[in-house]
Specification:
The longest helix is centred in the middle third of the chain and has 21 residues. This protein is of the alpha/beta class. Helix 2 packs parallel to helix 9. 31% of the residues lie in helices and 24% in strands. It starts with 5 loop residues before the first strand and ends with a helix. Helix 9 links the parallel strand 11 and strand 12. The chain contains twelve helices and 20 strands. Strands 3, 13, 14, 15, 16, 17, 18, 19 and 20 form a nine-stranded mixed sheet that branches. An eight-stranded parallel β-barrel has the order 4-5-6-7-8-10-11-12, surrounded by five helices. It binds ligand LLP. The site of ligand LLP has 22 residues, from helix 10 and helix 11.
Length: 420
């Protein structure tokens, strides 16, 4: 008899029995530990700093409430994320609105909700926002998003700071024009700049390089326009531990070096240092989540590869198909038994690319057994879709060993809502 697989004090078999599979399981304790680390190593260590959670990584009303209670702000990237954050009780003042192609109505929604900051991505958005803010009778606080031109070591689909990026202004004449205009516009309050180099970074070199570039650029903007930034937002991107990766780095590895560079720069210039902001998403939530599946089939094909088919797949976790992500897999009932079989975990969507994990070692499995994928808290639930009319799994949050349902499983009828 093995010990039951536990996740932050909860018995995984019991969660599966009570809530079914596929099932997203999230640890509130883990999330609160990460918030505490951010306070200790960043916001309380360095004066005049702020941390906002990148809600795109995992947004439920429950998650918004946890983050809100920890005093972090929110980064949102669409009208929908803004709506949900406000619905969860987040003060709009603590929200930063992002996006490379915001619609007029999103800008109107943001301005009328009195969102604290809008990160402006391009020139036409700047012009439009000036008009929208004018109609609302407000002076909108903004940051300009800069593409620092740093190629980060990550999958190219989640690298954002390189020169050929769809995000932001490149640090050349385009940015100069934007600064000049933003300073002139009546309804715009240019507070500073933002950059985000990429996601799932396991070294701090890209952040360091980007900060060096941005500081130099801020020096030039001061010379040219007398512009002194009051906020410098360094984005997110801090990596976590997936299969084959090194352990998650403490946040200090990223922020200490950034703060050193920024402090040195402002000591030298004599100007007041801007408020420094970070926007972690994955680092806050990924390791807080696992996904449980039931095995539906086990078979060996002509090449000798053993496929273990499960009751979920790319519809609840598209990251393997999209970025060749690698997950650690653990057996639930057979947890602790010797892992003697090399198997490939296949999803049940009608696609050959619908694989959740290639060549992982597990105990021999059969129909009805359960497995979990680790580190699925970030960019799984939020990227889930109804391909093959697969209902989105439920989300259960475990707090101090006690589970609660945060999002119920979709029904077939839920998937037909809106169809006429
Ligand atoms: N701030 C901005 C402006 C961002 O664009 C992002 C992520 C973040 C913060 C948070 O980055 P994080 O700390 O989570 O790395 N779906 C992809 C990840 C896309 C990230 C997009 N932007 C994935 O599953 O890997």
């Amino acid at each position: 008899m093995n010990d039951n697989l536990k996740f932050y004090g909860a018995d995984v078999s019991e969660l599966i029995r009570d809530y079914g599979t596929p099932l997203y399981i999230v640890s509130e304790d883990y999330i609160r530990e990460r918030c505490a680390e951010i306070r200790k190593s960043f916001t309380e260590k360095y004066p005049n700093t702020r941390a906002v959670y990148a809600s795109k990584a995992f947004q439920t009303l429950d998650m918004c409430k946890i983050i809100n209670s920890e005093g972090l702000g929110f980064d949102v990237v669409s009208g929908g994320e803004l709506y949900a954050a406000i619905k969860a009780g987040v003060n709009p003042e603590n929200i930063i609105f992002h996006g490379n192609s915001k619609t007029v109505w999103e800008l109107e929604e943001a301005a009328s909700a009195k969102v604290g900051t809008i990160v402006v991505d391009n020139m036409s958005e700047l012009e439009l926002l000036n008009e929208v803010a004018g109609r609302e009778g407000i002076k909108q606080k903004i940051l300009l998003r800069i593409t620092p031109g740093v190629d980060s070591h990550t999958h190219r689909y989640i690298s954002t700071g390189q020169l050929d990026s769809k995000f932001g202004f490149s640090a050349d004449e385009a940015l100069d024009t934007a600064v000049e205009k933003a300073l002139q516009y009546e309804n715009i309050d240019l507070y500073g700049v933002h950059f985000h180099v990429g996601s799932q970074l396991l070294e701090n070199d890209s952040h360091i390089m980007a900060v060096e570039i941005i500081l130099e650029m801020l020096g030039k903007l001061k010379e040219k326009y007398g512009f002194i930034a009051r906020e410098l937002n360094c984005g997110g991107g801090f990596g976590v531990h997936y299969a084959g990766d090194p352990e998650r780095l403490p946040i200090s590895i990223f922020v200490d070096k950034i703060m050193e560079l920024i402090d040195q720069f402002y000591e030298k210039s004599g100007d007041e240092r801007p408020t420094v902001i970070i926007e972690p998403g994955r680092w806050m939530i990924s390791e807080a989540g696992i996904t449980a599946y039931e095995v539906g089939s086990v078979k060996t094909n002509a090449t000798g590869r053993i496929y273990v088919g499960v009751d979920g797949g790319m519809s609840d976790n598209p990251r393997v198909a999209l970025y060749e992500a690698k997950y650690e897999v653990v057996a639930v009932e057979k947890y602790g038994e010797e892992c003697t079989e090399k198997v490939t975990i296949a999803g049940k969507c009608c696609e050959s690319g619908d694989i959740l994990a290639w060549d992982v070692m597990l105990p021999p499995l059969e129909r009805g057994d359960h497995i979990v994928l680790l580190c699925t808290g970030a960019y799984n639930f939020v990227m889930a879709c109804n391909y093959n009319k697969m209902p989105r799994p439920a989300v259960v949050t475990v707090s101090d060993g006690v589970p609660r349902l945060s999002v119920r499983r979709q029904t077939y009828d839920d998937m037909l809502i809106g169809e006429i």
